[in-house]
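Support case: zinc ion complex. Customer-provided input:
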Amino acid sequence: MNSRELLAKLVGFDTTSRESNLHLIEFVRDYLAGFGVPCELIFNEPRSKANLFATLGPPQVPGIVLSGHTDVVPVDGQAWSVAPFELSEHDGKLYGRGTADMKGYIACVLAAVPRFLAAPLRMPLHIALSYDEEVGCLGVRSLLAELERRPHKPLLCIIGEPTELKPVLGHKGKLAMRCDVHGAACHSAYAPQGVNAIEYAAELIGELGRIGARLRRPELHDPRFDPPYSTVQTGLISGGKALNIVPADCRFDFEVRALPNQDPRQVAEQLRHFAQQQLVPRMQAVDGASGIGFSELSAYPGLATDADSQAARWIAQFCGSSEFGTVAFGTEGGLFDAVGIPTVICGPGSMDQGHKPDEFVSLAQLAGCDAMLERLASALQR
Ligand SMILES: [Zn+2]
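Agent response - structure generated as follows:
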């Protein structure tokens, strides 16, 4: 099967993150078995989803990982003009959920398996497929824990998120946090006798704004990223029952998008410190049971692979460009990097189409990815 035929198969499996990905994983397992390639499945707790890991070529030396996530974002509420889980072609473009993000890359990798086996390879190529990337890079963590136990750490990981086949060396990290402010209700006519949770939440959000302003200082900028500084924003808020009741509860969610060399948890720590020092004493002077709680919703690290590294030289060679860039979206790359596997991002299609109705990848991009993997096979030939 060529990459287009394989993409049709992969798009046919509805692997929205809330669904099982096992039908797709079993298809890939059987496809690889057809070439005599065994694979390991690393299941989640209820065994409803799995990562897949397979090795082609000599396993006793360090190699290169070709990595992608199998899950896709929902199509709910989106106005698709084609069936999202059925590949269709129009004007040189292949439409379907996941064609760009990122089943196109997985299809090309699978289509290249006979070529990789025929090479023969002097170092192994690993195929690593994960689940639950779109809901916080959750699935790949158990796969990485497994890889960390092995004697040979891979020398490079190529994550095929859509970059239009341009080599990408970095992205920001992200931390998503929830804050619960618990105050004390009373009749609004006696407002000073209550602890107004919304007003204390507003003070916290104001402080987040000041922290965000400090992160914009020019000396902290990294011009590789857009915007070139870490950002903080509050995206959700709820609280209150009626205007004539002092609100007892307010909850808001905020996120930090941090440059790879900055720790987003420091922002959360600064806010916690402000809450403990400035707000909680005032709240508890009125009602001892009031307080402020923080919980982490999700987090993934940033990625900043050195442009002078072997990893960067390799991807430049394979994709035919050394115009290294960064992307605004997150990937599993920071997690691979954190376990000592140098990682780059390069794949077919554009994130301009990702997560949208009528998502597509062009046939030209798919052919370009096939060509990149052909150069990889030639470079690793014995
Ligand atoms: Zn993706």
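The first strand starts at residue 39 and ends at 43.

Case will auto-close in a few days if no follow-up is received.
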